[in-house]
Amino acid sequence: MKTFRYVGLLMIISGAALWGVSGPMIQWLFQNSSLTSSKFLIVRLLLAGIITLTLLYLTKKNIFGVWKHPRHWIQLIIFGILGMLGAQYAFIETIHVSTAVTAVLFQFLGPVLITIYVAIQTKKLPTAMQLLAVVSALMGTFFLITNGSVENIILSKEAITLGLLTTLGFTFYTLHPTSLIKEWGTVVIIGWGMLIGGVALFIYNQDFSVVHLAHSLTFSTLSILLLVIISGTLSFILYIGSLKYLNATETSLLSSIEPLVAAIVSMIWLNESFGIYQLLGGLLITTAVVFLSMPIERSKKKLKVE
Fold it and tell me: CA-to-CA distance for 283 and 302, rounded, in angstroms?
């Protein structure tokens, strides 16, 4: 059990780091190309979904079994459209109208909703350590984004609306597919979710043209686009897969390193500046991860002593 927990911790931290890196890459794409959020997501979701499912099929995985059970494929379609597409579209649009770090901030508000949901569902209050982790992570995120002053937050109504939708989408795709994953596996569900989301968006955007898209991309923008697709796909697989070994609250809170990674990459690559309070924010976010890993270890020691 201890080994499985370490696997889960490694998966969520790696997935969160990859997602943190992908945000600044997407921001760079929007700054250096004519890509829209819809066109970007059609390419990202369709390619990632097709590649993932093809690899599974070639390794003789049962990728079509889920479609033989009405209750499961209905859940899968809901996940693909509302969870996968909904969360990613809101996230990408938030980056488009603001910045990558802002989008990650709104995404990270999801753990607050998840913690409340889990507490209501289990009829148990969050542990003191979980509450401390939430407070520490939220304070860290606040300092990271604002550098200690709310006056530095200048967001349009559109950015706020899209950001809140990102929060809801993040919460939904974390909680909704857990039963499907237990039955069919992480990669199968993620693969179908991406393909369903991509097909739905492609049908909605009938003016999408592969030829026009190809002509609008340079070698640099195409390279970054491919890196975003790869890192984003791995991030989703690792994030959702970690739910096998960690509960939803732990997984969502451990993803608190996302804004830290996004901020560091933005500072180094996009030349965005950060102050002393933002560095303090990074420390608080790291502290939240430490807080979160403490309760289970302590409870195990108590059991051994008894």
Answer: 29
Within 13 Å of residue 207, how many CA atoms lie on the same side as its CB?
Answer: 2
Sign of the alpha-carbon dihedral angle for 119, 121, 122, 124: positive
Please give the structure tokens belonging to residue 115: 């913690």
Identify the three-state secondary structure at position 177. Answer: coil
**294 CB-near residues (< 8 Å, 6+ apart):** 129
Burial (CB count <10 Å: 0-12, 13-18, 19+), residue 153: middle
Tokens 């002053």 belong to which residue? 149
10 Å Cβ neighbour count for 69?
A: 13
Q: Cβ of 8: how many Cβ atoms within 10 Å?
A: 21
- The pLDDT tens digits for 180-216 are 988 998 889 989 999 999 999 999 988 888 888 888 8
The pTM of the full predicted model, rounded to 2 decimals, is 0.76
Give me 5's structure tokens: 């927990």
